[in-house]
Design brief:
The protein is α/β, with parallel strands linked by helices. The chain is built from 15 helices and 27 strands. Among the domains are: about 140 residues, 3-Layer(aba) Sandwich (Rossmann fold), CATH 3.40.50.980; about 100 residues, GMP Synthetase, Chain A, domain 3 (2-Layer Sandwich). It has a 13-stranded mixed sheet, with helices on both faces. Helix 6 links the parallel strand 11 and strand 12. The longest helix has 17 residues. It is globular and about 70 Å long.
């Protein structure tokens, strides 16, 4: 991928919201080139790894573009991790450079004591000072703003969110091709979905896969990306109205939070420029998506994919209205639904989702997990459960490791979670299994209310009754507890294990 062809256009490549900071394509190209020269001057070659510890700021895209055109893997690290957790990723990835920011100074400063091999040789910190680290971008100011002589395509080395254990590095083979020669399905999709005069909103942190990959591909198409420095529900509406957003990508929890805003607040923003939006990352409750389409119109498309890039599906809003709950048909890679013995499931029967013909990858340093992600045919899975209808449309059920077995019955908690968040007093919900002497596991719900005053035993009883009117009894929680905030990633994935540990301990 390249952005060089858009130099001289005068267009912004990045606009930060709400600060309004602008980085033009000319500036982004020059910054990326200077940093690429710095990487080469410090001995970084194709296949080396650059770790990035930055919030959404004006430097992050330049760092990613510099690494990508230098043949390097770049690893954006979750900014909420502790120094020990970030150090694990740096060491596991074999990073030879770290680029941090002043906002993450404490995390950067704490890395050394947790790295058994010592700090990487190249250490840069943006807009701040840290002993032993070079100040960026000042340290590259004398480097040429022209391309390095040996440009070659690098790639993202994404680490999973770690919701079920330590984060896993998802590594793909480099192409060994110059950037301009790299083929890509994303480029084809962008050219079809996104006109050159679009304005794209990226509301999620750039350390996640989709925000980084999509925003860079969109910049390669010459389209301005508005990056939210931090997502808030009303701030998102303000960004759309202020910048004339035409396209964007969201996750379901963002929809839920925007829908929970008071009606007068929602009505106060002009969203008429919206043309097409996409959502992914987690299953979207049917009722939530219906409400979004009622509000924004039939422009809410959806895709299903993973950081492993083994395959994907796509469904337009119009298709979805005819098949509520579906995530579409394969965009690339053939779909297979397999039972526990590896047999193909008929239409309507759930099983593990496998893709045939997708990208190959490895979980860095974990050959056992890499092998477990593939079956005897070489088809790949990330452990999601779903089924196909008669026309080949995919419906997600849940994650394999989220399944509850209560009294010998398999229960997928996503159904109860999806129903709970449609209650007007519920902001968020988690449903999971806890130990039960009689049943093996019992179904437990933890709820975050819109207003903290509703987090009462009386409302818990009311909510259980409300849910039992809408779901089969065995799928319903036996009890509901309340938390002020549920532990979610910025892309909406629940850290269920922390809740399971807490509430399982309470049963002992």
């Amino acid at each position: 991928m390249q952005i060089r062809q858009h130099v001289g256009s005068g267009k912004p490549a990045v606009i930060l919201h709400p600060s309004g900071t602008v980085v033009t394509f000319d500036e982004l190209e020059a910054r990326a080139n200077r940093l690429a020269h710095h990487f080469r001057a410090n001995g970084l070659v194709e296949g080396d790894v650059v770790a990035i510890l930055m919030e959404n700021n004006e430097h992050m895209h330049a760092v990613m573009w510099a690494a990508r055109r230098s043949g390097l893997y770049y690893v954006p690290i979750n900014i909420h991790l502790t120094p020990a957790e970030a150090a694990y990723i740096i060491e596991n990835s074999g990073a030879t450079a770290v680029v941090g920011s002043a906002a993450l100074r404490d995390t950067c400063a704490g890395l050394a004591e947790h790295l058994s091999v010592g700090l990487p040789k190249v250490l840069l910190i943006a807009d701040g000072d840290l002993p032993g680290w070079d100040r960026y971008p000042e340290c590259v100011a004398e480097q040429p703003d022209t391309p390095i002589a040996d440009e070659i395509e690098g790639d993202l080395l994404q680490y999973s969110s770690g919701t079920t254990g330590r984060p896993k590095g998802i590594k793909r083979e480099l192409t060994h091709l110059p950037p301009a020669e790299v083929p890509g399905l994303m480029k084809m999709l962008m050219s079809l979905w996104l006109p050159r005069d679009a304005v794209y909103l990226s509301p999620a942190p750039l350390y996640h896969t989709a925000p980084s990959v999509w925003s860079m591909q969109i910049q390669a198409e010459g389209v301005t990306t508005v990056v939210m420095e931090k997502f808030t529900a009303e701030g998102c509406l303000d960004a759309i109205a202020r910048h004339g957003i035409t396209h964007g990508q969201f996750v379901p929890v963002m929809f839920t939070r925007m829908l929970k805003l008071p009606q007068d607040v929602r009505d106060s923003y002009d969203l008429s420029t919206l043309t097409r939006v996409m959502h992914a990352a987690a299953p979207c409750p049917v009722e939530i998506k219906k409400q979004m389409i009622d509000w924004w119109g039939p422009i809410v498309d959806e895709y299903y994919a993973s950081s492993e890039a083994i395959g994907s599906t796509l469904i337009t809003a119009d298709e979805w209205l005819a098949r509520p709950g579906s995530v579409g048909r394969p965009m690339f890679g053939a779909l297979h639904i397999l039972d526990e013995d590896g047999n193909e499931q008929p239409a309507g029967q759930p099983g593990e989702i496998y893709f045939e013909g997708g990208n190959t990858f490895e979980y860095l340093g974990d050959t056992e997990k890499t092998a477990a992600s593939r079956d005897s045919h070489g088809w790949a899975t990330v452990g999601d459960i779903g089924y196909l209808d008669e026309d080949g449309y995919l419906y997600l059920t849940d994650r394999r490791h989220h399944m509850i077995i209560s009294g010998g019955v398999n229960i997928y908690p996503q159904e109860a979670e999806n129903m709970l968040v449609t209650h007007p007093k519920v902001m968020d919900a988690a449903v999971f299994g806890i130990p039960d002497a009689e049943m093996g596991q019992s179904v437990k719900a933890v709820v975050q209310t819109v207003n903290s005053s509703d987090a009462t035993a009386e409302f818990g009883t009311e909510l259980l009754g409300w849910l039992r009117e809408r779901l089969t009894h065995y799928k319903c929680p036996r009890s509901i507890s309340f938390e002020e905030q549920l532990p979610r990633t910025d892309t909406g994935k629940l850290y269920k294990q922390s809740l399971i540990d807490k509430y399982s301990a309470a049963t002992v």
